[in-house]
Amino acid sequence: MTHTLEELIPDYIQGLAAYVPGKPVEEVEQDLKIHAVKLASNENPLGPSPKAMAAARQALGEANWYPDGGSKRLREVLAARYGVRAEEVFVGLGSSEIIDLASRVLLRPGLTGITSEGSFALFAIAIRASGGKLVQTPMRNYTFDLDAMAAAVTPETRVIYIANPNNPTGTAFGAEEFDVFMKKVPGDVLVVLDEAYTEYAERRDLPKAMEIFKEYNNLLTLKTFSKVYGLAGLRIGYGIGHPTLVAEMNKLRTPFNVTSVGQAAALAALDDLEHVRRSVEMNHAERTRLLEELRKSGLRPVASETNFLFVPVAGMDAKAMCDELLHEGVIVRQLAWMGFPNAIRISVGNPEENSKLLAAMAKVMAQRKPAAAPVS
Ligand SMILES: Cc1ncc(COP(=O)(O)O)c(C=O)c1O
To answer: Which of 38, 226, 345 to mutate to test the pocket of ligand 1 (most atoms within 8 A of CB)?
Structure first.
């Protein structure tokens, strides 16, 4: 008996929605014949650390060799930095790979993964791609409802994904709230705490993941080199968690998941504290400016702990707004596919890029204002 290809692919894979990446600048420039800036994927507008670039260039000269398959040196440096053991550190092809692996290790049809509505799309994709059942709790005022997430745990639950600060809303919860949550979650349910944006947070009371990890075995904390370190194109991130989980994820990853160039750049970037400081400082100044200017133009961006702004545009057509901004040469992110049809997300760029966004937004908003009544 023969099958069609569709019949051979499990329903839970056929039913998956693919991750939608931000539009590449080159594509927009080619299609619209304009110069464009990309404020759509929360990258670092300062660029990579100069130290990381020098290390990457050097590593490129040895690119004929396979990389260190276990990212040993990087794991050792990270372990020393956080006061954990190297066996508790997993280095991945971006934190995206680790999000996926956590579900692949723990879930299968019949088991459940939990995340919140309005959070990073890969959480839901990872749960469903592993054949697990996806449970999403509602948000509370653009933040995670940790009580609802803990209450959603059943005997079938194996993993819970949380981003703090959250993408795309830019909000965060504090250490006290997280501690209450961790106390409610059974010890045999893994909590994945994704900290891609913590460096940008203004709140000083965010959970101290490494201290919590010493108390709770069931915590996997994720960090990335894609944001404040400016290495999104090199695809490298890491997770710190229980050695058994790390060992199992190591079996599932591809043998040489992280390139030698990525490992070298990441090691150098970790030492470039000046670049991190400058990145955070510029983000802070420009985020404040964007918030104030967007408020003046009548929008209500949500206060952000990240390098992007979540902007509700109720009463306006968010998709049309993104398209109009695109025609002005500014790429921002539509959020309908992330569960917010009436909001857009704007990454904080450098001063010049942000000025371009503000000018474009002023134009787009002016077209939306009702025409003034004629003077009789
Ligand atoms: C919350 C969150 N986690 C993870 C990632 C992915 O990071 P990486 O580039 O390390 O895969 C992103 C990227 O936007 C993110 O917003």
So the answer is: 226
